[in-house]
Write a structure and sequence with these properties.
Radius of gyration: 21 Å
Mean pLDDT: 91
Helix content: 40-55%
Strand order of the largest sheet: 1-2-4-3
Number of strands: 4
Low-confidence stretches: 1-18
Shape: globular
Strand content: 5-15%
């Protein structure tokens, strides 16, 4: 995902299908603004129409399409226009309309989550959510005031049209049920403070863990495996083997490793963390960071904003008393 900026306790409910409260749509949206451009795109009949559309929405579309100057604007615009002026775009447009056509409550969950965050935070967030068909150019782009969503990425998994440049283990997370968690985690990542001078794996694990924890407690009706980006089977498996995975990190002295290559093995997108087991999914270090942060927060009175601003990972790690052995 690309960002405008560089990306590198109010709610203690544990919700499931039995106790998840219905979200009140009265007064919606309260905490976000919605800028729905999909219908406008259905009326673009020429490149001149597309140029006017770009210009009228320049503030959000230029960063989304990575238009940084006007020197080569014609070439850039022609390349972008080719994504929406082809034989498949109409079908993609109708697929999106069928899947997401009822816009009334499309972002109700996101709106509610931002409200929960704002209820205890000093900095009040009120992002504008711009929704468009990108022609699979980009999925989610953010700055501190905007969330720009290429909504076609989140069509049903079995939809005929899906991005071709992503491996299957990543495509698993491009579904309607992952849309809110993806938008929220991408947006809030801007406010997640990390000590940039510390290069240890544990520092990055805790940073990911903080973000997962916050999103989990904002999306009060979302399953944990969705927030973490795992299938139910993957999540159940790593939870059942938590002690084994933790002992692997201890025995191999991974927490304070600084090499980029070894950090990629445990933190980056991969089909499996082969070093531990073929059945252990990728990004397992991020999951363990979430477990550590969750343990830390059981005894702390941090707001969600406080947690994102906490950059002392050693404080979180040593005060978490995390030990599944």
């Amino acid at each position: 995902m690309k960002f405008f900026v560089s990306f590198f306790f109010i709610c203690l409910l544990s919700c499931n299908s039995n106790n998840c409260p219905s979200l009140n749509s009265k007064g919606y949206p309260k905490n976000i603004q919605i800028n729905y451009l999909v219908n406008d795109q259905g009326n673009l009949g020429s490149i001149n129409d597309f140029l006017n559309y770009l210009q009228n929405n320049k503030k959000v579309l230029y960063p989304f399409y990575e238009i940084q100057d006007t020197l080569n604007l014609d070439i850039k615009v022609n390349n972008i226009y080719s994504l929406v002026d082809n034989v498949y775009f109409d079908s993609l447009y109708y697929d999106v309309q069928r899947q997401f056509g009822n816009k009334k409550n499309l972002f109700l969950e996101l709106d509610h989550s931002i409200g929960i965050y704002n209820s205890t935070s000093k900095k009040q967030l009120k992002p504008q959510v711009t929704v468009l068909l990108s022609g699979f150019y980009n999925d989610v782009v953010v700055d501190k005031e905007n969330i720009i969503l290429g909504i076609e990425y989140f069509l049903n998994k079995e939809n005929k049209y899906k991005p071709r440049d992503l491996p299957s283990y990543i495509l698993e997370r491009y579904t309607p049920e992952h849309m809110s968690s993806t938008m929220l985690s991408t947006f809030l990542s801007q406010f997640n403070v990390i000590d940039e001078n510390d290069k240890t794996m544990l520092n990055e694990m805790i940073s990911f863990g903080k973000l997962y924890y916050v999103v989990e407690h904002l999306l009060i009706c979302e399953k944990e495996n969705i927030v973490l980006g795992y299938t139910k089977e993957q999540y159940d498996m790593i939870e059942e083997n938590e002690a084994f995975i933790y002992s692997f990190f201890l025995q191999n002295e991974l927490f304070f490793k600084e090499g980029q290559l070894i950090k990629q093995k445990y933190l980056s997108e991969r089909p499996s963390t082969f070093e531990i087991s073929q059945s252990v999914p990728g990004r397992i270090g991020r999951w363990m960071g979430w477990k550590i942060v969750s343990s830390f927060m059981r005894a702390e009175k941090y707001t969600l904003e406080d947690l994102l601003l906490e950059d002392d990972y050693k404080k979180i790690f040593y005060n978490s008393n995390y030990n599944p052995l």
